[in-house]
């Protein structure tokens, strides 16, 4: 089936078109630049940007894919989880399109779509299941067990406070670095922002490993969960200390120590989930997948544990429409759905609701 997928859960307006498992186009426009001066995604600003971007994005996707809207067999859209107002723009557009074309509409789960994207990735043949998925972005941090991307997804753990990307963004702000924090913290850790070119010392400042003490790992409520809010406090302590002493803030050391702490806990818990479930495959998704240190440490520790690792191309890791179209096409070909045109966007949609 020819499926058009729309993604608008956060600050990316994504439109993807797939024919079965072939990706025809993946158009993404981001309002990230508009959020820089606020230090994080402002929901109202993101919603407005979606309203402006969605029409042109659909038109340009059709043009690149060389398809007419009337050729489309089904429309898929992210129904949740995500920012309410942002989701509503995509859902509204998708409903209008489906109604006008008189074609079925599939309201799909954003997290499942992050995993389903490998169905259409060009550098790989399909999706390996069962797998453990680590999804890390500005809005979420989850460990999932995936038996099947449509009807067997289990949430093993998630953050109890900040998302991993959010922790990067907030800590960056404390250190006087711009949004998005992720890439800037990485650069700072490598000594690329202070002009010295000297990498920071990952062990100079001690950062807490949230929920990763021995007793946390014994507690089923904490074993796969994350807490990153303590990292901000630790970074703030360093900032205050430097101010009080009138000393230079060792940004490279703090950035390196912070990054290592986030990565360490993410990787440790992912491999714990793999070992506990007896699953020897891990897939990474979300914008924090851009982090080089995360990819290196994860690859290293997966290899040590005899676990194979899949990291999709970065364009497919960050929010995009192709992943939504991929999941939509899978539902169409399995004869599941469509959604009723009256469904609403659900900002806290559970991961076991793959279709609303
Ligand atoms: P959602 O949570 O709905 O998936 P999002 O827009 O918050 O959406 P993405 O666009 O996938 O998430 O990713 C953005 C996040 O990824 C930001 O928090 C940013 O700081 C983080 N990020 C980007 N590059 C890096 C990096 N190199 N290292 C660490 N974090 C990064
Ligand atoms: Mg984003
Ligand atoms: Fe996402």
UniProtKB/TrEMBL annotation:
Comment on bound cofactor: Binds 1 Fe(2+) ion per subunit.
Record: residues binding substrate: 135-139, 169, 182, 291
Catalytic activity annotation: L-threonylcarbamoyladenylate + adenosine(37) in tRNA = N(6)-L-threonylcarbamoyladenosine(37) in tRNA + AMP + H(+)
Gene Ontology cellular component terms for the protein in this record: cytoplasm
InterPro entries assigned: ATPase_NBD, Gcp-like_dom, KAE1/TsaD, Peptidase_M22_CS, TsaD
Predominant place of localization: cytoplasm
Keywords, ordered alphabetically: Acyltransferase, Cytoplasm, Hydrolase, Iron, Metal-binding, Transferase, tRNA processing
EC number: 2.3.1.234
Residues the entry annotates as binding Fe cation: 110, 114, 319
Recorded GO MF terms: hydrolase activity; iron ion binding; tRNA N(6)-L-threonylcarbamoyladenine synthase activity
GO biological process: tRNA threonylcarbamoyladenosine modification
Cross-referenced HAMAP family: TsaD (MF_01445)
Family according to the record: Belongs to the KAE1 / TsaD family.
Function as written in the Swiss-Prot or TrEMBL entry: Required for the formation of a threonylcarbamoyl group on adenosine at position 37 (t(6)A37) in tRNAs that read codons beginning with adenine. Is involved in the transfer of the threonylcarbamoyl moiety of threonylcarbamoyl-AMP (TC-AMP) to the N6 group of A37, together with TsaE and TsaB. TsaD likely plays a direct catalytic role in this reaction.
Protein name, entry field: tRNA N6-adenosine threonylcarbamoyltransferase
Organism of derivation: Brevibacterium linens
């Amino acid at each position: 089936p020819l499926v058009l997928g729309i993604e608008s859960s956060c600050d990316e307006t994504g439109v993807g078109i797939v024919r079965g498992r072939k990706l025809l186009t993946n158009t993404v426009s981001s309002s990230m630049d508009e959020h820089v001066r606020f230090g994080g995604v402002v929901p109202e600003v993101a919603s407005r940007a979606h309203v402006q971007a969605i029409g042109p994005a659909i038109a340009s996707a059709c043009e690149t894919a060389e398809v007419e809207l009337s050729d489309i067999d089904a429309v898929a859209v992210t129904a949740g989880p995500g920012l309410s107002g942002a989701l509503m723009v995509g859902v509204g557009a998708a409903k209008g399109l489906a109604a006008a074309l008189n074609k079925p509409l599939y309201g799909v789960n954003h997290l499942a779509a992050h995993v389903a994207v490998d169905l259409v990735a060009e550098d790989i043949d399909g999706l390996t299941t069962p797998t453990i998925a680590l999804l890390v972005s500005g809005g979420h941090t989850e460990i999932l067990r995936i038996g099947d991307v449509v009807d067997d997804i289990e949430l093993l753990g998630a953050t109890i406070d900040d998302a991993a990307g959010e922790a990067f963004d907030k800590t960056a702000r404390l250190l006087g670095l711009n949004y998005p924090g992720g890439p800037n913290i990485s650069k700072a850790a490598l000594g690329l922002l202070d002009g010295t070119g000297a990498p920071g010392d990952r062990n100079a400042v001690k950062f807490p490993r949230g929920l990763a003490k021995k007793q946390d790992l014994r507690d089923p409520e904490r074993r796969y969960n994350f807490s990153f809010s303590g990292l901000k406090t630790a970074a703030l302590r360093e900032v205050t200390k430097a101010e009080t002493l009138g000393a230079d803030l060792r940004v490279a050391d703090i950035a390196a120590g912070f990054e290592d702490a986030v990565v360490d806990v993410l990787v440790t818990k992912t491999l714990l989930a793999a070992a506990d479930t007896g699953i020897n495959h891990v897939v990474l998704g979300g914008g924090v997948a851009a982090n080089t240190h995360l990819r290196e440490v994860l690859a290293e520790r997966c290899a040590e544990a005899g676990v194979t690792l899949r990291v999709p191309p970065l364009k497919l890791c960050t929010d995009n429409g192709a992943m939504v179209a991929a999941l939509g096409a899978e539902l169409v070909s399995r004869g599941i759905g469509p959604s009723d045109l009256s469904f609403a966007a659900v900002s806290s949609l559970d991961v076991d609701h793959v279709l609303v």
